[in-house]
Amino acid sequence: MSQTWNQQVVKKENKALVLTTIKEKAPISRATIAQLTGLNKGTVSSLVSELLAEKLITESGTGKSSGGRRPVMLLLNEVAGFTISVELGVNNILAVLTNLRGQIVSEKNIHFSEQNLDDVLPKLYQVIDQLRVEAPISPYGIVGIGVGVPGVVSTIGEVLLAPNLGWKKVPLKQLLVDHYQIPVIVENEANAGAYGEKVYGAGQEANEVVYASISTGIGVGLILDGKLYKGLKGFSGELGHMTIEKDGLDCQCGNKGCWELYASENALLKQAKLAGFADITTEKLIEAAEQQDPQALSLFDKLGDYIGVGITNILHIFNPEQVIIGNSIQQAERYILPAIKQRIEQHAIGFNKGDVHIQTSQLHKYSTTMGMAAFTIEEFFQKTNIHLN
Amino acid sequence: MSQTWNQQVVKKENKALVLTTIKEKAPISRATIAQLTGLNKGTVSSLVSELLAEKLITESGTGKSSGGRRPVMLLLNEVAGFTISVELGVNNILAVLTNLRGQIVSEKNIHFSEQNLDDVLPKLYQVIDQLRVEAPISPYGIVGIGVGVPGVVSTIGEVLLAPNLGWKKVPLKQLLVDHYQIPVIVENEANAGAYGEKVYGAGQEANEVVYASISTGIGVGLILDGKLYKGLKGFSGELGHMTIEKDGLDCQCGNKGCWELYASENALLKQAKLAGFADITTEKLIEAAEQQDPQALSLFDKLGDYIGVGITNILHIFNPEQVIIGNSIQQAERYILPAIKQRIEQHAIGFNKGDVHIQTSQLHKYSTTMGMAAFTIEEFFQKTNIHLN
DNA sequence: ATAACTTTGTCCAGTCGATAAACTAAGTTC
DNA sequence: GAACTTAGTTTATCGACTGGACAAAGTTAT
After folding, report:
1. Burial status of residue B355 (CB atoms within 10 A of its CB: 0-12, 13-18, 19 or more)
2. The CATH fold of domain A82-193+368-383
3. Structural domain B2-76, CATH architecture
4. How far is it, in rounded angstroms, from Cα A306 to Cα A303?
5. For the packed helices B117-134 and B172-180, what is the interaxial angle rounded to 10 degrees?
6. Chain A closest-CA separation from residue B79 CA (Å)
7. Which residues 2-61 of chain A have a CB within 8 Å of chain B?
8. Domain map (residue ranges) of chain A
9. Which of A60, B191, B197, B277 sees the fewest Cβ atoms within 10 Å?
10. Contact residues on chain A for B256, CB-CB shorter than 8 A
11. Is A320 close to B232, i.e. CB distance below 8 A?
């Protein structure tokens, strides 16, 4: 059944509008909110007093007068609640406690070696529990838990497939909800990274953002029209398995010539071994490049070129404003970016390359956790508005 | 400035909801509308009487009783206005006069050989004028003109580049608005085709639709989340220039290994010539295939395979519900579809190929014109609602 | 045939939320 | 210190939806 539009909806939307305005322009007065939103002063006053009662915002003394009574400034009450936002990696867990403005209050980072669910889950509970204890007392407490995972996640938060963890059909969201009884969001790591950069990082000004998470494999998160795009059942963004060489290398996904076979960290290390580097890691390769080792430089150059091929495709497909390259490959930034940019400069259609900005992630290792925080915070504000109107 | 939510908005939205319900479920009674939308019976009554006064809907006698008073059935007044919807091809113009339900009332199809704007524009005016004369008298008259063009169109309706017409920076929308003084929409041919299939054709049930228009080149229209996706400045969907062979054939777009170099009609004919067919056309090749000519069959097979490569990529990128193949290649449907489907079956990741339907266009040569009609009709209903509330 | 029940559609009083305008509060400027 | 400005609250009014009463027009059971 379709949504029916009545006064309650109007109120909810206006309240959300006021709250968003405060979030974005704080500190701000009631009068200015009325101006910016076009709402009546009285309406703003009444909505603001409700938000104050709900402890979602606070008054913070008076501002400068501009020739009349001094305004009372309003702030988002960022400590009304906290999120626990987690990035589940292949052999580590990065978890942060954030306030409602996404600011990190505390952080845990632990490593693990066994990837079975039975081994990982207790570790996950452990870091979450630690952060829960550290959270300051607040009106809303922990408003939600978000987990970014390196795999395909269904719309109901089930990890359908996480090859690098060896997981299949793990109902992670359900497990966490059952255990903690608070809202949980499980999302693909690249999707979360994209959203993190959009909300708190390099993509704040843009509405069309492509975030390429390049590490062992390649995952891509798409922000289209300002929102995360998920596809029919949440399986989109498998751009790592876009063919860039028809009938090229065999991929374990079943396809051939997949982008990630040529442009991922795995591909880099494989090429390095072929080139004679023994026992190689990305870090060591970067060191070699810093010593001007021509082989290392050439390897990075080739990698950048291949990354550029995929990004050129992305430009042609989406015509985005911003392409952000994140995850572990970012540490080699200075050795791959030139080749990436050159590839694009020489091969992308003029229209599409004109306005695009290509850069590495601004949040670095926090892209995914911040994205999960953003999801959780957004959901909290939406729910709160619905329940208390 | 952001949208403020007041009673007017509520009314406008509810009125649009009632109108949409009538459009989709006609014939329908006031009581049923109230049930379906969740609106109050009184509210529906009052909105319906406004719509009747505006001639947008009509009453059409009474329906069957279900044990009480017989309902008065409401219909969309599809002849309250008409659209002129045009597909501008490389050497022909297909123009149709449609009513507000997208039904074709009249049709013109003319050919031309000179592609200069100065030669084409008069022809365009000519067909539009003919259709204008043929339009029945109606309360709203011709509510708009829509033109689908084979090229890149900016958000303000300027044809930035149409290689096959040799056009650059043609302000087509402005020209038509100046000439006719009614609303005009100019859109890329593939985008329009996608929307046409979504609204009136093969994509009606789906919310994520990819429409590949394959003729001389390849254009792709994307319906994401039920809406046409355009990218930052309207340049998206250049999927024809997605690289499927790194450092493959040179494309005039500046890139290498572009999909359309391998999977378009142009590519097919080029291969046919190499195979020894002289003076070949797609039609002749189909005839040959009908005679079981092994060379012709193999050419179509190869083409289908290459089309399948691109579509596999599309599945991985978008995870759509429906992939529709349209435009002139469609006539070879039975000789290319098997290879396309085989490629996908063998190479797409399981998740993504699971629920997708792959088929050829249902509207055939009308995909683009119907899409333009849908755009125009949608805009008309939106504007009408705004102005008369 | 008639009474009882059903369904459709209209009407009207009540409610809720936004608005405009009056008003209070608290400064600044000349 | 009088006149002017700006911020924020209060109040009367308006507009739109809602629920219920009611009229209109059927069907069903006896």
Report:
1. middle
2. Nucleotidyltransferase; domain 5 (3.30.420)
3. Orthogonal Bundle (1.10)
4. 5
5. 40
6. 27
7. 2, 4-7, 9-10, 13-14, 17, 21, 36-39
8. 2-76, 82-193+368-383, 204-362
9. A60
10. 347
11. yes
- Measured CA to CA, the distance from residue B372 to residue B187 in angstroms comes to 8
Q: Which residue is nearest to nucleotide D16 (CA to C1')?
A: B7
Per-residue pLDDT of chain A (389 residues), as tens digits, is 344 567 788 899 999 999 999 999 989 999 999 999 999 999 999 999 999 999 999 999 888 888 889 999 999 999 999 999 999 999 999 999 999 999 999 999 999 999 999 999 999 999 999 999 999 999 999 999 999 999 989 889 999 988 889 999 999 999 999 999 999 999 999 999 999 999 999 999 999 999 999 998 899 999 988 999 887 666 666 788 888 888 899 988 878 889 999 999 999 999 999 999 989 999 999 999 999 999 999 999 999 999 999 998 888 888 888 999 999 999 999 999 999 999 998 888 766 566 788 999 999 999 999 999 999 999 999 887 654 43
pTM of the predicted model as reported, rounded to 2 decimal places: 0.90
Task: Classify A204-362 by CATH class.
Answer: alpha beta
CB distance B252 to B163 below 8 Å: yes
Amino acid identity for residue B378 in this structure: E
- Closest residue on chain A to B152 (Cα): A351
Nearest by CB to A37, from B4, B207, B317: name it: B4
Omega of the bond leading into B27 within 30 degrees of 0 (cis): yes
Q: Is A388 on the interface with B (CB under 8 A)?
A: no
Within 7 Å: CB of A61 and strand D?
Answer: no
Tokens standing for A366?
């926090």
